């Protein structure tokens, strides 16, 4: 993947690793780090939505931060439209940022309460000329808000409307890629559906490409064509969302699916049984083998001794599991 990027690939993530440095225990102690992401590779073609899923702390936001050039990878590279964003000069990156934008989880915290909606939405465009004002009005209209809303402040809107404002802000530069990190998980269920429908419509009308992060498989099943399942900083399974969620190959994906409330055919959510309580994560960090082995019902001796590599297990499907 280090060679030429296919022309329709909007995002290419190649063997990413991210270590967060930890404070030293003492002056003479060795430097310590948390490995948040290990050897993660994936690509998203134009117009497609890739769902990145996994439990809290598995490294989803860390990947989003590297894709948004907020955090520098310890290893690996990220290309957007074929360009390595971590090798650009700060000036080049500033200009290139119009191609990729982000929508955050918290529609309350991510909008400056002292700024008007017009200023918030126009902010990524970085100037306030007539062209920007027209783009702000168009972005607000695209998300179902009125051009007249520009003079109002975030507190005058509901949670769902605020998330529409955040989406409008992401659209104002007419980006190719939108990274959405848990964009609906802070919203009520009924409002979640509206915002998901909006994201889906915008994908069609504007030809957007999404990296969609969620711990909610029902939401991913609804919006994403492709899925990457992570555990402890690594990809454990990937493939088409439908196929992976219908017949998971990795025992972790199966446990995740069984634990999640799903949207059934009538459109209502049913709760499923929770998986067994987590074993201590320290065990995960120290094992040379599969990070999931301490929790896995199907683990064999090899699983605790040897790290499984991601390998094809079915057409268009890969899993990192010795028993899959
Ligand atoms: N700034 C930081 N410094 C040190 N460790 C961090 C930092 N940010 C995240 N981590 C650690 O990196 C790991 C991955 O965190 P990350 O935020 O990427 O997880 P996540 O999958 O987004 O979780 P969640 O679903 O809770 O948002 C966690 O173990 C976390 O504690
Ligand atoms: Mg996160």
Helix and strand composition category: alpha/beta
State the separation between the terminal residues, measured CA to CA. 25 Å
**Mean pLDDT across all amino acids:** 89
User: Biggest sheet: strands side by side, in what order?
Assistant: 6-7-8-3-9-10-14-13
Bound molecules: adenosine-5'-triphosphate, magnesium ion
Main beta-sheet strand count, sense and barrel state: 8 strands, mixed
- The Rg value, from CA coordinates, equals 21 Å
In CATH terms, what is the architecture? 3-Layer(aba) Sandwich
Count of individual beta strands: 14
- Which fold name fills CATH's third level, the topology? Rossmann fold
Q: Report the uncertain regions.
A: 270-284
**In CATH, what is the homologous superfamily?**
P-loop containing nucleotide triphosphate hydrolases
Describe the structure in brief.
30% of the residues lie in helices and 24% in strands. The chain has helices at residues 60-67, 90-96, 117-122, 130-142, 159-171, 189-206, 217-223, 241-246, 251-259, 281-286, 301-305; strands at residues 9-22, 32-45, 49-53, 75-80, 83-84, 100-103, 177-181, 209-213, 226-231, 234-240, 262-263, 269-270, 311-314, 317-319.
Please specify the SSE layout and strand pairing.
Blueprint: E1 9-22, E2 32-45, E3 49-53, H1 60-67, E4 75-80, E5 83-84, H2 90-96, E6 100-103, H3 117-122, H4 130-142, H5 159-171, E7 177-181, H6 189-206, E8 209-213, H7 217-223, E9 226-231, E10 234-240, H8 241-246, H9 251-259, E11 262-263, E12 269-270, H10 281-286, H11 301-305, E13 311-314, E14 317-319
Parallel strand pairs: 3-8, 3-9, 6-7, 7-8
Antiparallel strand pairs: 1-2, 1-4, 4-5, 9-10, 10-14, 11-12, 13-14
Helix pairs in contact: 4-5, 5-6
Bound molecules: adenosine-5'-triphosphate and magnesium ion.
Adenosine-5'-triphosphate binds at residues 20, 34, 36, 54, 56-62, 215.
